[in-house]
Amino acid sequence: xxxxxxxxxxxxxxxxxxxxxxxxxxxxxxxxxxxxxxxxxxxxxxxxxxxxxxxxxxxxxxxxxxxxxxxxxxxxxxxxxxxxxxxxxxxxxxxxxxxxxxxxxxxxxxxxxxxxxxxxxxxxxxxxxxxxxxxxxxxxxxxxxxxxxxxxxxxxxxxxxxxxxxxxxxxxxxxxxxxxxxxxxxxxxxxxxxxxxxxxxxxxxxxxxxxxxxx
Length: 215
What we know:
By secondary structure, the chain is of the alpha/beta class.
């Protein structure tokens, strides 16, 4: 995934029909490569069980499975999931593809060594309970990794009107975690190069939170 999908985020952006139609509009929406922040933060971890929330066409899930993780990959789009499963057919035994709406789906508590979600942009009323459920799904000693577009992209990213309620800083993500239960290892904004919808290189920033659930 590169930059925000739309300059003006549709209010029905997490509707299953909208996403299925979006995926059908192109042979591939994303590069197929894993998110760079995932690679940077997870490459040093031993393989275990992982939850990839909002897995899309499977770039992150396939990378994790290829490194020995047993992955549960969840997405709202059956089109994306079918595309990902086909791409990763040789890893079928290491990935379970789950069709679900993350705004209502309840992951099993304390079940994953790694829970990761990249660029799940939602209004605060949906985002906060979702991230709380994802945090609860991490086993004691496990890792939570959340990556979003930093609010600075409201001004410095590709042009267009955006709703600030869909953006959150790494510090805000960290503040939502109970320090008695979590050790925050990374909470920062990281600039990087990306490609906009016209193929031009732009500078964006990712809000990156990596936290370890205390044993």
